Amino acid sequence: MHNYINITMAKGSKATFLPRKVLKNLELMGEQIKLARKRRKLSLAAVAERAQCTQLTVMRVEKGAPTVSMGIYARILYALGLDEDLLLIAQKDEAGNSLVNTQLMRRNERKEEYDVFD
Questions:
Q1: Residue 67 counted as domain residue
Q2: pLDDT value at position 113?
Q3: What's residue 101's pLDDT?
Q4: Are strands 4-7 and 16-19 parallel, antiparallel or unpaired?
Q5: Domain count, the chain
Q6: Which residues contact 30 (CB under 8 A, 6 or more apart)?
C-alpha cells in the first residue's frame, strides 16, 4: 500500500486509505475552487454564508480535504455559480466507452459468424 495514504476520519469512524493520485487531484480541485472564489472577489465569509457552512469548511475544501462531504463541495460550487461543473464528473469515461466498444465489436463478430450459416 505504498501508493496509498491513511486519512484520519472523524472520531468513531474508520480510517480510510486514498491513493496519492486521488489526494493530488483533490488538492488541485481545491486550488481551482479557491481561484474561482478569488476571481469573483468573494471572501471566505461570503462563500461560507452562501454555502451555509463555516469559513473553516470552505478553507478545508480549498485545500482539497478528502474528509469533507461531497455535498459540501457541491454547495460551495453552487455558491460560486459553478454547480454545473458537477455534471462534468465521469462525463468522458474513455475507459468505459472503450470497454463497451470492444464488447460491441465482439458481439458483432459473433453475429457475423452465425450469419454465415444462415
A1: yes
A2: 66
A3: 79
A4: antiparallel
A5: 1
A6: 61, 62, 63, 64, 65
Pick from 100, 105, 26, 61: which is nearest to 18 by CA?
Answer: 26
Percentage of the chain beyond pLDDT 90 is 59
**Amino acid occupying residue 105:** M
Task: List the domain range (segments joined by +) for residue 8.
Answer: 4-91
Q: Is residue 48 scored above 70 in pLDDT?
A: yes
CATH number at residue 68: 1.10.260.40
- Specify if 118 maps to a domain: no
Band (pLDDT 50/70/90 cuts) for residue 117 is low
Q: In this structure, which amino acid lies at residue 35?
A: L
pTM of the model: 0.73
Residue that has been written with the C-alpha cell 454465415 in this structure: 116
Q: What single-letter amino acid sits at 82? A: L
In a domain, 60, yes or no: yes
Determine the pLDDT at residue 1. 47
Domain membership flag for residue 79: yes
Radius of gyration of the chain (CA): 21
